[in-house]
Amino acid sequence: MKKTVGIRSTGVYIPSTFMTSADIARESGIPQEIVEEKLGFKRKPIPGPDDHTIEMGIKAARLALEKGEIKPEEIDLVIYIGEEYKEHLLQTGAIKLQGGVGATRAWGFDVQLRCGTMVMALKIAKDLMLANENINTVLLAGGYRNGDLINYKNPRVRFMYNLGAGGAAVVLQKGLRRNTVLGSRIITDPSLADAVGVTAGGTKVPLTPETVAQGLYSLDVFDPEGMKNRLEEVSMPNFLRVIREALEESGYSTADIGYLCLLHMKRSAHEYILSQLNLRPEQSIYLEDYGHIGQMDQILSLELALERGLVKDGDIVVMVSAGVGYAWAATVVKWGPEE
């Protein structure tokens, strides 16, 4: 019998405090209707005093373990999929996460592909599990709060005004024969490697009182025109390409898609992707009440879809992401029991 890896359970943690479109309008000077209709969100979660990046991943992981009825000591491997903007610089998130959930038998490491990390990590975890007989249960978890790094007075980062906060987790098991993780496709474009980042805090521009006072410890777009032109050329085609090629690797086509777990993006881009795939609006939830919680979006979308009855046994679910750098990724999951 062919070995497979399935999703045992998921968990999502959303902070209780929200920033509304009206708040964004006041901060940025953009009309509220533009925030809601063009940028595409009515509100987004923001972190409370205790909502640190890894800690939100721990909260989501505990939910996933409880739902899956998994004991922490059953976990063989912990993969941290959250952001590198976390409690401390140079901290290994997976090890803190491992301790936070009590996974005493596990070992752990971090992976990073910006907002594409969860979708990429599903592939990495599946491949590791199939290649290693001693890795049977894997926890993927992490948090995100890059909205802290947004200056709403900077129009160059307007497309990131939707950045929120939260955590997500997935428990994978080998031989589960349910919610089977299938093929993946990832594209990276090095021409955009230096397009977006935090100006100060790295080796090029050290973090000093002067750089902080100048507002340089915030996200920025270093080549706005170059990035705009390149993304107009490749972004939508790459979204569609990773979806189609991940499906092809899985033995399916776009006609088989039951549900699309799509990251939050501007409304027109979301609608364009659905139209190109001949999908109905109810085959993908538009996250207008959450904004963009980075690499947590796909798991949030899946949980919302399951709650609303939009995903049922037998459905082909495609998780789709993109991250600055620039990367596009898709992973296919066949929901429900294997036939």
TrEMBL record:
The keyword Membrane does not apply. Keywords: Acyltransferase, Transferase. GO terms for biological process: fatty acid biosynthetic process; secondary metabolite biosynthetic process. It comes from the Bacteria. Coiled coil: none annotated. The keyword Phosphoprotein does not apply. Residues 247-335 form the Beta-ketoacyl-[acyl-carrier-protein] synthase III C-terminal domain. GO terms for molecular function: 3-oxoacyl-[acyl-carrier-protein] synthase activity. Residues 109-189 form the Beta-ketoacyl-[acyl-carrier-protein] synthase III N-terminal domain. SUPFAM superfamilies: Thiolase-like. InterPro entries: ACP_syn_III_C (IPR013747), ACP_syn_III_N (IPR013751), Thiolase-like (IPR016039). This is 3-oxoacyl-[acyl-carrier-protein] synthase-3. It comes from Thermanaeromonas toyohensis ToBE. The lineage of its organism: Bacteria, Bacillati, Bacillota, Clostridia, Neomoorellales.
